[in-house]
Amino acid sequence: MAIPTSESLYAVFILLQDPRQSGKVQRGLAETLVMIVCGLLVGADNLVEFEFWAKQKQDWLQQHLRLPHGIPSHDAMGRLLSQIDLREFAGAFQRWVRGQFPPLAEVVAIDGKTSRRRRGKDQPPLHLVIAFAAQTSLVLGQLATSEKSNEKTAIPELLQTLYPKGCILTLDTIGTQASIVEQIQAREADYVLAVKDKQRLLSESIREFFEAFVSDPQGTPHSVQETVEKDHGRLETRRCYAFSQLECLVKPLQWPNLRSFAVVESTLEIGEKVTTPRRLYISSLPANAESLLQAVRSHWSEENCLHWCLDVAFADDQMRLSEGYAANNLAVLKHVTLNLIRQGPVSSKASIKSKRLLAATSDR
Predict the structure, then answer these.
(1) How far apart, in whole angstroms, are the C-alpha atoms of residue 198 and residue 345?
(2) Taking the CA atoms of the chain, what radius of gyration do you get in angstroms?
(3) pLDDT tens digits for 253-285?
(4) Cβ atoms of 168 and 189 closer than 8 Å
(5) Domain range annotation of the chain
(6) Which residues fall within 8 angstroms of residue 80, CB to CB, at 6 or more apart?
(7) DSSP β-bridge partners for residue 239
(8) The model scores a pTM over 0.85
(9) Rounded to an integer, what distance in angstroms lies between the CA atom of residue 20 and that of residue 355?
């Protein structure tokens, strides 16, 4: 896979509409954004750190960027980020992703993330709905919402910007809507959707079927897959049971191309404490427990491979920008940086912190 270059990123940023007054602009929009990405790559996490690093590396930066008026202040960077139209910027990010990373048939998890420390006057925390490719660990797109409850309307809008043909889309219960399923099918993708108590009749019918199955498993056609993980004093056994008896569900025809449903039963042992939660799913995939469990686990990986990484490695949960669109647009630049790091030439075994340290110590 070709490694993305700063020039290709610059070419995408140069097409953005500059929201500033043209007569007062001293530093180019694209140059400033590329400079911020470079700052993120080397370990800077906020605008003050970007300015500090850039002034130390000004001679190197001017080998690649014009910067006729030098390095912008952190306040100037913040004002620029706050004014760039967030939807135009998100679209530019997705054009860059499509241009740099070839599409793969893989699991794409769509889930929300909240930056809880970002809260301005009369403003809620920043909440993004993010499409994450589990196999390649790439962010494919994102859309800002005012709060988590608005994910239901944000997900269809995000889907319109993706090209998921041949992929398996996984969503939590807030995306388990017949209209969303229709859109997924129209885009020639499969789905694995979580079912919880909000879909009361559907969840009850799956639970009743599974209780009857447990009492007489031999008489019920099914597929089963088991995995065992032991780490740091915890033992987790997961069993996925997949079924194709759709006639046992409530209104199965409302879900386009529904082919199976599944129950994932986890037994978690930590010391003497044992818990056994059950999670329910519906899918357009065949009733194959192995493939369904793989899709479910890929969705869970977004929490560790993306959300946790952004919070710990990029201090995303500490982001306090509150002016205009600054917080959202900086989050997009963090996604750009994470994609660059994940697809970079350094060994995949190296941590994000190690790769940023290498970028900080090696101009090449």
Answers:
(1) 45
(2) 23
(3) 999 999 999 999 998 888 888 888 899 999 999
(4) yes
(5) 6-98+324-361, 103-309
(6) 19, 20, 29, 32, 72
(7) 226, 265
(8) yes
(9) 34
